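Hi R.,

Here's the chain you asked about this morning:
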Amino acid sequence: MDTQKKRQKKKLVRRPEMCKDEQEFRNYKDSQRQLVVQRHYKLMRQNQTVEFHSRQMAKLMERLRAGTCKMSIRECFMQLENYVDSSDPDSELPNVIHALQTAEGIRKAGEPEWFQLIGLLHDMGKVMFLWGDEQDGQQGTADGDQWALGGDTWVVGAAMPKSLVFPEYNELNPDMQKKEYSSKYGIYKPNCGIQNLKFAFGHDEYMYQMLKFNQAKFPEQALHMCRLHSCYPWHSSGEYDHLMKHEDHETKRWVQKFNNYDLYTKTPETLKTEELWPYYQNLIDKFCPGKLCW
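And the predicted structure, written out as tokens:
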């Protein structure tokens, strides 16, 4: 069977939870949201630098220590009810619907409770839009720029991989004009480990740091899922092997497992929050109860 026929045969394969063929997800060429998504990634590539990452991390940690915003998980969920991700070509539904779809997909597969809850929480860092501004790249909903909230991430401070979506925008990144940031290793040492890398700033890093700060009772795998699920060049394209430690390969396997639910559970079907919430509130009470610092 030639390669083209193999591809055609694979395209017909669809798991029960998928609303369309695997190849139809992550369409960055001609989706119905093409202009919105393309603008998002152009702005992301133009603005996500080492300096921006450092500035946003400092703001994040200062905010968490100050404790100026305290919310329960349910209160945060409600704040995101009308938030639509401008980087997502697969869905224009509010992000909370995607969160429930992910969690329910994980639950139906019989995965552990902590895994199910991470499915619900993984995108909640997008609540940053509430206090962001244009300079922070967190202007609001899909009607405003949000290049520091969502989208595929990459390692800042090193050469940008061509496997990134819209690779033609890589050259727009100011760091790529600086020798110390644009080489293979950049500011990092060989095999320094995933934990020591800086990623394009967004909801992933935010939620990872927020859960750690609040001492949520999750295993390390759950925290890695939060922090790394948007780094498609790493978990789906085999980039950054030269920066990984041996144990990072196990981390990648967990993130890849999560990604199957994060991506392929997206459907036009909406779920009823009020019917599902008592189950998830029970999990919240186990792993991250009460009001948390955001």
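Residues 50-66 form the longest helix (17 residues).

Let me know if you need anything else.
M.
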